[in-house]
Specification:
Blueprint lengths: L14 E7 L2 E8 L3 E4 L8 E9 L2 E9 L10 E5 L9
Antiparallel strand pairs: 1-2, 1-4, 2-3, 3-6, 4-5, 5-6
Length: 90
C-alpha cells in the first residue's frame, strides 16, 4: 500500500514567542491562555511581564501577570491577563 501523499497546500507557520520581564527576554516554547512554558526559565518573583508573539511576521504584544513568578523547577509558568488582556488573540 502506498503512503498518503502530503498536502501540497500545507503551511508551516514561522512562530516566535518571548516573555520580557524586568529587562530579561526569555524564549517561550509553548503558550496557552493561562500558562506558558519557557525554554530556559529563571527564578523570578510574581510580576507583570510582556509577551511578544510573531506568526509569519504578524506581530502582537500584550501584558500578563506572572501569578506565581517563574521557577526553573516548574514546567509551567502561570499567567493571567493584565490591563487590557490578550488583545489581538481570539
Amino acid at each position: 500500500m502506498d503512503a498518503p501523499k502530503g498536502n501540497r497546500y500545507g503551511h508551516s507557520a514561522d512562530v516566535y514567542m518571548t516573555l520580557s520581564v524586568n529587562g530579561d527576554v526569555l524564549k517561550i516554547s509553548h503558550l496557552a491562555p493561562d500558562f506558558l512554558i519557557l525554554r530556559t526559565p529563571i527564578e523570578h518573583p510574581p510580576a507583570d511581564a510582556e509577551i511578544f508573539l510573531s506568526i509569519d511576521g504578524n506581530e502582537d504584544r500584550w501584558m500578563v501577570r506572572l501569578v506565581n513568578g517563574i521557577h526553573p523547577e516548574r514546567l509551567r509558568t502561570a499567567i493571567e491577563p493584565c490591563g487590557n488582556g490578550m488583545r489581538g488573540i481570539e
